[in-house]
Amino acid sequence: MTGADYAFWVFAILGGLAALGVVMMRNLFRAALLLVLCFFTVAGIYGSLSADFLAVAQVLVYMGAISVLIIFAVMLTRDMRRGNPFNRAWPSVLVVCGFLMAGIIYVVVETTWPTVDVSPAVTGAAIKDGTSSTAAIAETVFDKDSGFLLPFEIAGMLILAAVIGAVALVRDK
Question: Which of 23, 42, 22, 26 is nearest to 34 (CA)?
Fold first, then answer.
């Protein structure tokens, strides 16, 4: 096993423990901090798999923006010290979640998934093990002829329109 394999397993085990801690922690602030640790371990897993673009995006988007948003929401929550007490419905919720999880596992295992052609002609430039994936992703996504430049621009305009609409709705008149 290489160093990247060991790093993958360390991040995977740490991420699983952090995710269990998020679910089982009664203190909301500590659960939010464990969620930040879980986001970090996902970025570490991406890094160990040589997916540097996804690792950086994970750090910027989730560890940067989403984590701050969650921690602000937790800090503004009343009765933060008491946490989220269990109610009497937790056994029935546990049974429903167990059935949903069993159904999802059954569908994933029993579905015949179509095969996908992953030749370099289809996916863009071939990415060798250990090389940067950012340039290949950029060439594939923003290619003039077969890329997704127009949908990215349309999505940006829709997000801008939504932000302007939200500001217009909440501003004082």
Answer: 22
What is the rounded CA–CA span in Å between residue 66 and residue 68? 5
Collapsed DSSP state (helix, strand, coil) of residue 5: helix
Q: Count the neighbouring beta carbons within 10 Å of the beta carbon of residue 22.
A: 17
Q: Please, are residues 133 and 50 in contact by the beta-carbon 8 Å criterion?
A: yes
Q: How far apart are CA 89 and CA 111, in angstroms?
A: 33
* pLDDT for the residue numbered 105: 94
27 backbone φψ class: left, alpha, beta (φ>0; ψ -120 to 50): beta
Q: Taking the complete model, does pTM exceed 0.85, yes or no?
A: no
Q: What is the pLDDT of residue 124?
A: 47
**C-alpha to C-alpha distance for 166 and 84, rounded to whole angstroms:** 30
Alpha carbon of residue 140 to chain centroid: 22
Residue among 123, 120, 150 at smallest CA distance from 137:
123
At 117 the three-state DSSP class reads coil
